[in-house]
Amino acid sequence: MTIGVHSRRAAYVALALLTLIWGFNWVLMKAALMHSHPLAFNVQRTWLATLVLFAVLIARRRRFWPHSWRAVVITALFQTMLNFGATTMAVALGGAGRTSVLVYTMPFWTILIAWPVLHERVRGLQAAAIAFAFAGLLLVVQPWSWRGDLAPKLWAVLSGFGWAAGTVSMKYFQRDRDFDMLSFVAWQMLLGVLPLTLLPWAFAVPATQWSVLQGVLLILVGVVATAGGFLLWMEILRWLPAGTASLNMFAVPVTALLASMAIFGERLAANEWIGIALIGVGLGLIASQALGPGRRTAPLPATPTPVDGG
Fold it and tell me: Disulfide check for 163: which of 106, 146, 183, 241 has CB 3.0–4.6 Å away?
């Protein structure tokens, strides 16, 4: 199983597709969580994605074992265990509302981590794009107007940090000669889901109310959004700097908000519309710089760091 991304322009098209998939995924999860506890549903969709990835890995008849167990363990810790686990804790403690949007502090964490690890710098219009996107996200989320427990919000921010650290880790280890994307993704997801499997028992969550619709929702979230989205995200990271790719993820919560309006009848306030517009400006600045003349057309290697003695 391969995903045909062969240039930076194609990577941006793939990024737009992934934005739609992950944006609508929040709506699908919201519908699924009406009949399943967040902790239980997260384990179900992650195990389903893991099984799909290993089935494809076996069918492909290429490298099965990961090129580096260190790479798998480090990425699993951040990308699957911390990111997925913290997200479900945020939803379990605070619901699936605006708390979940705090996961998208991820681009800012990515920029901070990618600076010392990947030696990526904020250049040109990226600084202005960050400012516009950050201001827009603040207007959409409005952290100053929140009431209630702080714990779910902190879990959501921790999820964003885990996602960012996992993203940088993936891009860092992609430079290895023997790196195999599918094997790497499958194994890190398997190692990451094992601790998450214990959470439903630890919290004594109720049983899932199964139906045909619930099964379809689980397949869409587990197979398309989680397994397929993971593969697409890894391919995008082969062609785009981690910071650039992550900043474009600001469009995911916007897509989720618009999808919720259309499906669940939710309405946006004036501040949310302004925030969406500012995020759009930031994304436009990034796209104009990345798609301009003179950009590289080969995959981007990650520069070795002192971690490897380089």
Answer: 106
